[in-house]
Design brief:
The chain is of the alpha/beta class and about 280 residues long. The protein contains eleven helices and nine strands.
Length: about 280
Amino acid sequence: WVEVFSHTVQLHRTPLSIAPIFSRQRAGHPRAWIFTSATLSVKGNFGHYAAQLGLDKDRSLSLPSPFDYGEQGLLYVPRDLPAPQSPQFTDAVVAAALPLIEAAGGRTFVLCTTLRAVQRASDLLYEAFAERGLQLPILVQGQASRTELLDRFRELGNAVLVGSQSFWEGVDVRGEALSLVVIDKLPFAPPDDPVLAARMEALQKKGLSPFAVHQLPHAVITLKQGAGRLIRSETDRGVLVICDTRLVEKPYGRQIWQSLPPFKRTRERDTVVAFLEGLKKA
């Protein structure tokens, strides 16, 4: 596939599947391969991950978490938000998040699916904090390296960090510094991505549903990674906010939230505010 810029053209060659390549690697020398993660399965099924790597004779095991998600966390889907494709969507996400950020005293990750949303959300937060007189630091992806931003977030103890894909995984903030994770949209890959488009076409030619076989499982695993930023130890407590009403309104939404940690669920803002204010007093 070709990418055209103002002064250059880039030609990319990407395999639609790494399964044949990885299978050759595994066949080269007999050994055991062990894959472990909290986010490999979709509703306890490892089929999507196994198919991507060509693991046709895998043995899988799903172990219970040491965390008491039902007591430690709350999943909140706000009501009356516009559709994710609406031009006003990010503004509505920030408006829904503001009272929760205030109740939490900062200590928030705002995770966006696009860099454009990161910029818009951070601009709105700067304006809103100034209007409300909230003395909460705002850290934005791009201001510094990921490591520097995370170090500052931990040290400040009351910051709001706005980030995109690089903050959805591999980030570990334990304790009181993080009590609220706000995710704007279900992380479906953009349909105009040329590799995704080619993979979807290949699946269609096989008579398979690209959405069910690839797009949905990929989104579930990515969402689980983002949600996993919240509870990092047996003593962590907090709220996960997903501002995409498809989670509760679409038939496939059930499969998504059933793949998430078993938090208590609510759609009432007052319940969330009371939970967060209780954390500050604890």
